[in-house]
Amino acid sequence: MKPEGMFMKIDTPELRKAHIDQAMITPSAVFDTPTEVVEAKCLTRRQKIEVLKRWELDARALQRATDENMTGGEHPPLDEINEALSKLDPEGSTPDGFGKAPTKI
């Protein structure tokens, strides 16, 4: 059970605005998998890409922390995130709102 004030994952494709806002900040708080983001009928293509790019940034940050011997929970599914992004934006032409974040693979 999540602490009070946190959103529970939802099972329906219909998200309330609060859930959409939460997905833009912490995608894994709303969606179980990146595939669910792709299939969400309530999000625009642009919103789906933004949610997935946020999830990717989170995954890369956790990967960097792990590389520096800092543990931090369950590893986000980076390969699945990249596959979902490729379905929505095959050319990778949609900019995100996060600027150029350093990445380490």
SS field, number of helical segments:
4
Mean pLDDT: 76
Which oligomeric form is depicted? single chain
Q: Using only CA atoms, what is the Rg?
A: 14 Å
Key descriptive features of the protein:
105 residues; mainly alpha; 4 helices; 47% helix; globular; disordered N terminus; disordered C terminus
Question: Secondary structure elements and their pairing?
Answer:
Blueprint (H helix, E strand, L loop, with lengths): L16 H9 L8 H6 L5 H23 L10 H11 L17
Tell me what the structure shows:
It is a single chain. This protein is mainly α and 105 residues long. It has one domain. The chain has 4 helices and no strands. Helix 3 (45-67) packs antiparallel against helix 4 (78-88). The N and C termini lie far apart (33 Å).
Compact overview of the structure:
This protein has 105 residues and is mainly alpha-helical. It has helices spanning 17-25, 34-39, 45-67, 78-88. 47% of the residues lie in helices and 0% in strands.
